[in-house]
Specification:
Blueprint (H helix, E strand, L loop, with lengths): L2 H26 L7 E12 L19 H13 L5 E7 L2 H11 L6 E4 L10 E6 L2 E2 L10 E4 L2 E4 L5 E6 L6 E8 L6 E3 L2 E3 H24 L3 E7 L7 H7 L8 E3 L12 E4 L5 E4 L2 E6 L6 E7 L11 E7 L1
Parallel strand pairs: 1-2, 9-12
Antiparallel strand pairs: 1-18, 2-4, 3-4, 5-8, 6-7, 8-9, 10-11, 12-16, 13-16, 14-15, 17-18
Helix pairs in contact: 2-3, 4-5
Bound molecules: calcium ion (CA).
């Protein structure tokens, strides 16, 4: 090969390397194809620190004996499903969420989102861990209210509301997380009133529906998840899903879980009867229904970690 031929060969080689390099960078940046996004919701059951917060009534009563053992147990449940988005309930404060994320999930690449709720009895808040980048500010809707049966209802734990960007495709997921009123009776004039608690939860369901309607009407990809303290056929769930209005309905992703596994909580009454109920939910807008590739409920949560199972859904976006 003469000098001229060598030069031509060298130039072609450089051009070929540039093309290969450019395509490699393109692949690394995402090819625009579908991505699998794993969603999880988990009620972590009194995820408290060991500090007595004078503003919270019940934090000392439910303080874990070993805070880091509790956090490690919660982290293990999260880690084994490798979720991209985790909705948490019953988080006492920002400090305990940061301790979970930085000390026990440090290598998972999560950003944490949280706001303090109005619930000063339990101190319980909702929170989000996510590997997806936020595409807008976090909203909490603590000031929102609705009326039902002549009464005003609000979400004492708020409604976590954030848009997240799916890597690669650049699509946006509009994620909402909440924790509705428990089934424990409300106390009125020193007497228990279970019906009032049910009315409050129904009012909260109506309010969630009103707050998610704009995103649904705009055709966004919407995910609504959390502990709603009631099952699919309750008034609260009927409101949220859209059974009571003409707007776009939500799809109940966990309905596809086999019946024998389709519960997230077990209650035992005074006579020792056991009741199985799915109170934790992952609902999505209908434009995501065909993008759900799997759904499961993880019952292997140790009793000392939580009395709730974790729910996991994979979306292909
Ligand atoms: Ca709190």
């Amino acid at each position: 090969m003469n000098t001229r031929a060598w030069w031509l060969f060298a130039r072609l080689l450089v051009v070929a390397l540039l093309i290969v390099g450019a395509s490699a960078v393109f692949v690394l940046q995402g090819d625009g194809g579908p991505q699998c996004i794993t969603l999880m919701t988990f009620n972590a059951a009194w995820l408290c620190d060991a500090v007595d917060d004078p503003a919270v009534m019940l934090d000392q009563e439910h303080m874990p004996r070993d805070v880091d053992a509790k956090l490690a147990g919660v982290a293990e449940v999260i880690r084994r499903h490798n979720p991209d988005i985790v909705a948490l309930q019953e988080v006492e404060n920002w400090g305990v969420l940061e301790r979970l994320n930085r000390r026990h999930l440090a290598d998972e690449g999560y950003a944490a989102y949280w706001f303090d709720s109005l619930d000063t009895a339990t101190g319980q808040d909702v929170a989000l861990l996510t590997r997806l980048q936020a595409a807008g500010p976090l909203r909490n809707h603590l000031d929102a209210f609705t009326t039902l049966d002549g009464k005003r209802w609000r979400l004492s734990r708020g409604l976590l509301d954030i848009r997240l960007r799916v890597p690669g495709s650049g699509k946006l997921l509009h994620v909402f997380v909440t924790h509705l009123r428990s089934q424990l009776p409300a106390w009125v004039n020193g007497r228990p009133d279970a019906y009032l608690a049910d009315c409050q939860r129904a009012g909260q369901g109506k309010l969630v529906r009103e707050l998610i309607q704009p995103a649904l009407q705009a055709g966004e990809y919407v995910v609504v998840m959390g502990d709603f303290n009631d099952d699919r056929n309750s008034p609260a769930l009927e409101f949220i899903i859209g059974d009571n209005d003409r707007g776009p309905k939500l799809y109940d992703t966990l309905a596809r879980v086999p019946l024998a596994d389709n519960y997230t909580c077990v209650w035992t009454d005074a006579l020792g009867n056991r009741y199985y109920e799915r109170v934790d939910h992952i609902l999505v807008s209908r434009n995501l229904q065909k993008r759900v590739t799997s759904a499961l409920i993880d019952h292997a949560v140790p009793a000392e970690v939580s009395d709730h199972a974790a729910a996991v859904v994979v979306l292909k976006l």
